[in-house]
Amino acid sequence: MTGLRRNVPSYEAYSPNGLLRERSTYKDGEWDGLVESYYENGQLKTKATYKDDERDGPSEYYYESGQLEWRVIYKDGEWHGLSESYDENGQLESKGTYNMGEDRGEWIEDGETGHLRPLSSRPRKRQLAP
To answer: What fold characterizes domain 67-124?
Structure first.
């Protein structure tokens, strides 16, 4: 992919059925700006902001239905700031903050009863594709 994007400011890829699969912007051959990926049904899958080929700014991840699954902020490629996750019905499941990749403060998370409850700080790492 590096060779393809070296000299182009933007890129779009389409699936065999003609629907958009990826839209991205580049600067000096690196992701820079908004990068979006899509499910085969055409629904938005991920939307992330990049700077110098690293996530930097808000990122959002969606269920195939189009419902928001997870929202997190990055700084220099690390989770930094508010992180929120939602179930497929749009109900808040968890919420907390990070400081340069480290879990900070109390998290609240959906328990078996469906109510949010405070949790003690604990490390959370989650890798999702761009």
So the answer is: 2.20.110
Closest CA to 37 of 17, 15, 57: 15
User: Which residue, 46, 74, 79, 43, is CA-closest to 60?
Assistant: 46
pTM: 0.75
Name the residue ranges covered by the structural domains of the chain: 1-58, 67-124
Work out the angle at residue 56's Cα, subtended by the Cα atoms of residues 50 and 60, and round it to the nearest 5 degrees: 80
- Contacts of residue 29, defined as CB under 8 A and 6 or more positions apart, other chains included, come to 2, 5, 6, 7
Distance of alpha carbon 51 from alpha carbon 1, whole angstroms:
17
Whether 55 and 49 have beta carbons less than 8 Å apart is answered as: yes
Distance CA 78, CA 76 (A): 6
pLDDT tens, position by position, 86-110: 999 998 888 888 888 777 766 676 5
